[in-house]
Each structure stands twice: as C-alpha cells, then as structure tokens.
Amino acid sequence: MKTVYLAGFISTDYPQTYEWRKKAYQLLLGPYFEILSPLRGKENLKAQTTDGGITSTISTPRDIILRDYHDVKRSDVIIANLENYGSPRPLLGTIYELAWSWEHKKPVVAVCSPENYLMRKHPFVAETISHYFETVEEACKFMDDYYRQ
C-alpha cells in the first residue's frame, strides 16, 4: 500500500480546493492507496476560520505546519495541485509542501494547467515535480498505473 498526500491550495472561498481532493480520493480509493489530506479534521473549516482557511480557531499555526510536515514525510508519493483557482493569495503552504517533498526525496505528481507558466517553469518548482498532468483524473490514472504495485 502506498501512502499519498494531497498537497495544494486551501481556501474556503474557492470550493475547487475541496472538490479536487474529493475526486482524487474517490479515484484512488481501494486497497492500494492510503490517502492523507491536509483537510482531514477540518470538515467545518468555514466556521473555524475568518481568513478563508489560512488560520483556524482550533489549531495553532504550529499545529498545522507540524501535521502537514509529518504527513509529507511519511508519504510515499505526493499529488500536488498547483492551481490557485484565480485567488490572489499565493500558494505558500503548497510551496512548503514541495520543499519538504524535495527534502525527503518524495516523488511529486502535479496537476497544473499548461498556461500556469510559473508552476511549470520556475526552476525550484520544475525540479521538484516528477510528472505533470493537466487534470486530477490524468494524475490519478498515472498513480494507479505506476504506483499500484
């Protein structure tokens, strides 16, 4: 069984940040993958935050970063959605997750549109990504074909 961490933008203002994780979970559900999400335990995030999901009234910033770091560290592979869905907020948490992936030599399967020049061409990001795909479905099919061993 492979442990997969779902890295990517989180915002209560952009439901796509939840929807892609639900789709990935459904596509990878089964005996081959254990899925870890930074949204687990945050089902009611909209009521727990006043800033779109950056902070929480329940977890401290240290709680959040330590759990996500531990999850990346214990994962076998990372699926990173590099889209921000039009938000003006940068993907700071995702960039941290990519750096941790690099630090621990974890393969990263990225979901990223071809037009997202920064996330495809910036050397720090491009060097961290093992494979790019345009859709969650394509990334999960690759995961199923490549990592289901």
What does this structure look like?
It is a single chain. The chain has 149 residues and is α/β, with parallel strands linked by helices. The protein has one domain: Rossmann fold (3-Layer(aba) Sandwich). The chain has 7 helices and 5 strands, in the order βαβααβαβααβα. It has a 5-stranded parallel β-sheet, with helices on both faces. The longest helix is centred in the middle third of the chain and has 14 residues. It is globular.
List its salient traits:
149 residues; alpha/beta; Rossmann fold; five-stranded parallel beta sheet; 15% strand
Please give the largest β-sheet: 5 strands, parallel
Give the low-pLDDT segments: none
* Structural domain count: 1
* Element-level helix/strand string: EHEHHEHEHHEH
Specify the helix fraction band. Answer: 40-55%
Distance between the amino and carboxyl termini: 8 Å
Q: Write down the overall geometry.
A: globular
The tally of beta strands, per DSSP, is: 5
| Residue fraction in strands | 15-25%
The CATH topology: Rossmann fold
Question: Which CATH class is shown?
Answer: Alpha Beta
Please state the second-level CATH architecture: 3-Layer(aba) Sandwich
What's the number of helices?
7
Instruction: Describe the strand arrangement of the main beta sheet, using strand numbers.
Output: 2-1-3-4-5
What structural category do the secondary elements indicate? alpha/beta
